[in-house]
Amino acid sequence: MLYAGFMSATLPPFPNPQEPFDTPQLLEVGSAHEACLRADAARNRARLLEAAARLIAEHGVAGVTMEAVAQAAGVGKGTVFRRFGDRTGLLMALLDHSARTLQADFISGPPPLGPGAPPVDRLRALGTALLYRYAEQLDLLLAAQSEPTRRHSHPSARALHMHTTMLLRQVLPDADCDLLAQTLMAYLDPALIHHLTQQCGMPLERLEAGWYDLVARVTGTDVPR
């Protein structure tokens, strides 16, 4: 499954998870005034992200600076910093839509990516989906992950790791699946995908076949023919 057009597509309602990911989050409650303030903040955030998306479409990722986004959105630069913290935070926010769409697919979408398929089939499908999604968004991903300490702590990265760990435990209950999940995710690191596809000239089909082989060797299963 490809994830092109992720910044312009309408995000579907996030489904109720069928699998445990983390401790349940408390619902936010407050006065109508507070709800109005939250709604205004959400609209302002969406307007800033739309401006950033336009800049990427016109000038590439290099054209996205806090100053440029502020000017394109018609707000002060301080507003952009308050919303996103820094440029990396802004770029990560642009990727959130795509990450949430992928999470919806593996939480409650159709198999083999979603529930209902054997765990090894779901691991294969997850890697394939990530591989092609990352290949489409390499410039943005690399720019957003320029801060190494954020790479594994971002909520979308933690969700992927937890999901991969859960699938591995269904196949290898006695293994250190937490670390094995990190090993599998390292194969799909955007910097490595960029190196292999852009600098080594490897086609994505070879990387996909390599993912199938890696999953087979880690889980002790056969590579599909």
Describe this structure in words.
This protein has 225 residues and is mainly alpha-helical. It contains ten helices and no strands. The model is unreliable at 1-31 (pLDDT under 50).
Distance between the termini: 20 Å
Number of strands: 0
Low-confidence stretches: 1-31
Oligomer: single chain
Q: Mean of the pLDDT scores?
A: 82
Largest sheet: none
The SSE order reads HHHHHHHHHH
- Class by SSE composition: mainly alpha
Helix content: 55-70%
Strand content: under 5%
Radius of gyration: 19 Å
Total of DSSP H or I helical runs spanning 4+ residues: 10
Q: What overall geometry do the principal axes of the alpha carbons give? A: elongated
Summary keywords:
single chain, disordered N terminus, mainly alpha, elongated, 10 helices, 225 residues
Outline of the structure:
By secondary structure, this protein is an all-alpha fold. It has helices spanning 32-59, 66-73, 77-84, 87-108, 119-136, 138-144, 155-171, 177-187, 190-199, 204-219.
Structural topology:
Layout lengths: L31 H28 L6 H8 L3 H8 L2 H22 L10 H18 L1 H7 L10 H17 L5 H11 L2 H10 L4 H16 L6
Helix pairs in contact: 1-2, 2-3, 3-4, 4-6, 4-7, 5-7, 5-10, 7-8
